[in-house]
Amino acid sequence: MKFNTLVIHGGIDGDKATGAVTVPIYQTSTYKQKAVGEHTGYEYSRTGNPTREALEKLIADLEGGYRGFAFGSGMAALSSILMLFKSGDHIIIGDDVYGGTYRVVDKVFSHLGIVYDAVDTTSVDNIRKAVKHNTKAIIVETPSNPLMKLTDIAAVSEIAKEQNLLLVVDNTFMTPYLQRPLELGADIVVHSATKYLGGHSDVVAGLVAVNTEALAEKLHFVQNSVGAILGPQDSWLLIKGIRTLALRMDRHCENATKIAQWLLLQTWVKKVYYPGLDSKVTHYEKQMKDYGGMISFEVASQDIVDKIMSDLKVITLAESLGGIESLISVPAKMTHASVPPEKRQALGIKDTLIRLSVGVEDVEDIIKDLRPFI
Ligand SMILES: *Cc1c(COP(=O)(O)O)cnc(C)c1O
C-alpha cells in the first residue's frame, strides 16, 4: 500500500464484530476470562487495550517499524526509551533537542546514573568524537527546534551501527509522511503525537515505532512495567487525527513555503530559518520529502516583535505546534525561557526570534497577521 492509502487504512481498520468503519473505544480496564488463565489475548488494559493496539499498529505501519507503542505524552515515550538504559551508560543527545528532552536527561536520568553529552549533531564528526566506551545511544532531532538545523540520519546511523549504539530519532517535526528514520537506519523513532500526528491541538500523546522484535519486547516490558500508556479515548482521537495526516501535511508545507519566501522579501526580517530555503539542504533532500510547517525568523527589533504579537487576528499566540491552526511564539521568552541567556545566545536563540507553526488556513490571512506596519 502507498502512504496515502496506508494513512487511511493502516493499523487495525474498523471493527470485525460489528462492521463499524472506525475502531471502537474499548473503555475497559479488564477482560473476562473463559477459564482461569484462558483469556482472549487481553488481560488488563495497562498491558494491552484493543483501541490503543489499533493506534500502535498504525504508527508501526506508517513508520515501517516492527511494532508501535502509544504513550501518555511525548515525554512519557522518551522517558520509557531512556529506561532501556542503566546506571553507568552514556548517551549522546543533540545540543538543541526539545527542552523537555534535555530536562529529563539532565535532571531525571542523570540522577539515576545515566550520563550524557550534548553535541551539535549536524556534524557527524562531533558525534564520532563524543562516543565513549560506555556510550549506548544517540538521540537526534531533525530539523531541530527552533533553528531548524538538519542532521543526516543515514550518516549518523552508520556510526551507530559501527559502534553498536541505538539510534533514536525524534520525528515530531516531520512525521512519517515527510521522513521515515527507520528506513534510513534508525532503531527507534519517537513522536510527540500531540503535534502533527494528532494535528488538532486536542490531545497530548506520544508514539514510538521500533525496528526489531528484541527492541519491541524490551520497550513493551518497560511500558507495561511503568504504565506510561495512552488511554483508549485519546487513542481513538489520535487515530482520527492521523487519518488526515497526508492532507494536512501537504497544506502545512505549501503554506510554509509561501510564507518563508514572503518573509525573505521583507526588509524588517533579518533571517529566515526554513529548511527549504537553504541551498545546502539538497544534500538531505533524500531524507525529507518536503520541509514541513515550522518556520523561525529573526526580526530587526523588539518593537517589531511586540507589534506582530499585539495584533494577531488569525494566528494564536501559544506554545506547541503542529495543529491545523497557526501558532506563534517567541522561543526566548516561552519554550526556551528556562535555557540560561548565555546558552540561548550561544545557540543563536535571540529575543527577536519568532517561531511560527504554520497552520492550514488561507495563506493570505496568515501573512496579513505577520505584517507589523499596517
Ligand atoms: C512537544 C515535543 C516533545 C514532548 O512531547 P509532549 O507530548 O509535549 O510530552 C518532544 N519532542 C519534540 C520535538 C516536541 O516538539
TrEMBL record:
PROSITE patterns: CYS_MET_METAB_PP
The entry's keywords: Lyase, Pyridoxal phosphate
GO molecular function: cystathionine gamma-lyase activity; cystathionine gamma-synthase activity; pyridoxal phosphate binding
Protein name: Cystathionine beta-lyase
Family designation: Belongs to the trans-sulfuration enzymes family.
GO cellular component, one term: cytoplasm
Cofactor(s) it depends on: pyridoxal 5'-phosphate
